[in-house]
Amino acid sequence: MALWRDGVLSERGAESLTGGSALVLPWVDALLADAGLAMRDLDAIAFGAGPGSFTGLRLACGIAQGLACGLDLPTLGVSTLAALAQASGEERVFACLDARMNEVYFAAYAAVGGVVTELHAPQVAPPNLVAPPAGDWVGCGDGFAAYGDALPRPARVRADVWPTAAAVAALAAPRLMRGEGGDAAQAMPLYVRDKVALTTAERLARGGLR
Prior knowledge:
The chain is an alpha/beta fold. The chain has 6 helices and 9 strands. The chain has a 5-stranded mixed β-sheet. Strands 1-2 form a two-stranded antiparallel sheet. A two-stranded parallel ribbon has the order 3-4. Strand 8 (138-140), helix 4 (143-147) and strand 9 form a beta-alpha-beta unit. It is globular.
């Protein structure tokens, strides 16, 4: 979780084997308390909209909607791949996250002066069918670690970069200033992939295991 206040970011986070759902609201309270703020002082709620794990995306969207509805605030969904590009600090990012099921989520971004511009929209595909656009790119994300040489890669790769709550907040703040916040009831995860399970034959055809 992160709090953006007049350009100053604060963040709470931890690795959790259970997904961390029980920590989210206490972190919200702690961030606000540290900043001397109350819930009523917030202007909007942003969330990592995806792509990513279905459970994680629904959790993020549900919590954002619950908070925003209770406070009558707008919401902003931010692409996790765009947040990955923002968190990397690189200028030309080929973002790639492990999508499981022998696939990866990927997109390309230019990130200059804190502004992240989508150059190639998020997609999902088996790693052997993915290739970075022509040019000088930095590959970022755990997709490069998960699939090794099966995934074509740019000359430079940073597989240890992750989307962060601070990156989500940093991308959402200027959008809110432009009036882009939406009705919480309309907030939706960005799944990219609609099918969440494969048959045994489909897994084997993609090189997976039974």
